[in-house]
């Protein structure tokens, strides 16, 4: 019997960034086009999702910001956020395997009552992440060193988590770099699918989206190339290995 595929939900409207994200999740997760299916939510509605048909759900990052005022959001973003809220409610209730990357902090955080705001934004580029004591006991984070480098860049973050949520990682500028709800529902602020080439692609695609001054794009790429980022991908591969089912 074939393994149930994983589902990647994408909020990237730009083909170059969306396709690069899909390839990266396949590469670092050890998946292919048969075992990782994709829905681009910017291009079509989510529709009905039968969780029993999937091994797990992965939500990619992108330019949406959950904490923005509703009137500042496009009709597409409002539709996507409503669909994701309904899906996440079902995922949380079932404690179904989920990994939200960057944007997942905002969407999953909002679903569980975390405070999501712009108090702890981080610039695009490398970030030093520290695993918490709770993270040391977590099956996806235990294989990581106590401190590791990752790539990120975000306008909003979780500043306060509710008591029933487990914080797994932190950084100097951002108190919540990863958390877990229940036993199987995860979100990371950094990108577990992102290597330096992928970051450079996103710098090119999003240089006019307000993450950084466009004229600094090359210096951001140069700074990223001076750091070695390999550990975050362990989380993505661990998620796939732990939850792949037949």
TrEMBL record:
One of its GO terms (cellular component) is cytosol. Residues 51-194 form the Glutamine amidotransferase domain. The keyword Nucleotide-binding does not apply. It comes from the Bacteria. The keyword Amino-acid biosynthesis does not apply. Coiled coil: none annotated. Keywords: Glutamine amidotransferase. This is Glutamine amidotransferase.
